[in-house]
Design brief:
alpha+beta; 6 strands
Length: about 280
């Protein structure tokens, strides 16, 4: 059995040209076919076991763990480097609000570590969103293309922010501020859509396990939303007094956004998938 869906060019013409290829939804997964090669294959089935064990392929659970841990590890290593060089104060930034995440990656040597960690993290996270989109379609509970597109835009914003960090000039400053806001906002929105996908699976399957993960994801989303609203309210009420606690809010929101991917990784342990990249055979595309 094979279900054909049009390539994203038909939905997002401003991102892709019409002759790039097509996406085929097979029983064993999602195949993105491009001229001369297959860009990727997601191999899994709805029982949680793969239809044909791939000899080569990246388990999506690994991709989710990388999306969760690489930004976390990078920012904390950069903080330790910056503090050890006297560039920021020694403290617990989650409580003391002594430094922003940006300040940990502005100067050498942490500047290079920040860029080398965050840019790959952004690319891996973008790849994960597209894989989760395919995973959802395989479960016949897809979210449409908004989830991976928002996730990709978040990754792009994070990359632009990272590249501008540590550079001098008003243009770079504007790029940093815009990039970090969009990265946080688009990531949150993409996570909301994935949480909605889990809700659909929970309602359709009636499995307590799916309900458990949907509720946990929703709780984390509500916590993030509450922290964001509290941050806005305190900023309006306290004015400049809010500056003393703004950095702590930034650290907590980044932690929770990364923590969401920990939940995704644990979910994919139960219902796994694999990402494969392989050359197309003759006549395939």
């Amino acid at each position: 059995m094979k279900h054909s869906v049009s390539f994203l060019a038909s939905h997002v013409p401003w991102l892709f040209s019409a002759n790039l290829g097509k996406i085929s939804v097979l029983d064993e997964g999602i195949c993105v076919s491009m001229p001369g090669y297959e860009a990727g294959v997601l191999v899994m089935n709805q029982t949680g076991a793969h239809s044909s064990a791939p000899s080569q392929g990246l388990p999506l659970v690994w991709l989710a763990w990388l999306a969760a841990l690489l930004p976390f590890v990078t920012t904390h290593i950069c903080y330790l480097l910056a503090a050890s060089h006297g560039q920021v104060d020694w403290c617990i930034p989650y409580w003391d609000s002594c430094t922003s995440i940006s300040a940990t990656g502005r100067q050498l040597p942490a500047k290079y570590v920040f860029k080398l960690g965050m840019i790959p993290a952004a690319l891996l996270t973008a790849a994960l969103w597209w894989c989760l989109w395919g995973w959802g379609r395989q479960h016949q509970a897809g979210t449409g293309w908004w989830m991976p597109v928002l996730g990709s835009l978040a990754a792009l914003a994070l990359i632009l922010y990272t590249l501008a960090l540590g550079e001098v000039g008003q243009g770079y400053r504007t790029l940093r501020r815009t990039g970090v806001v969009l990265a946080f906002a688009f990531t949150f929105l993409a996570q909301v859509l994935f949480t909605r996908l889990l809700r659909r699976l929970a309602q359709r399957n009636g499995d307590p396990w799916w309900t458990h993960w949907w509720r946990r994801s929703l709780s984390l989303q509500l916590l993030l939303l509450g922290i964001g609203l509290l941050s806005v309210i305190l900023d309006l009420v306290l004015g400049r007094g809010y500056d003393a606690m703004e950095d702590a809010f930034e650290w907590w929101m980044a932690l929770l956004l990364n923590g969401y991917f920990v939940g995704v990784a644990l979910l994919l342990r139960r219902d796994p998938g694999w990402l494969q990249i392989r050359a197309a055979g003759p006549g395939r595309v």
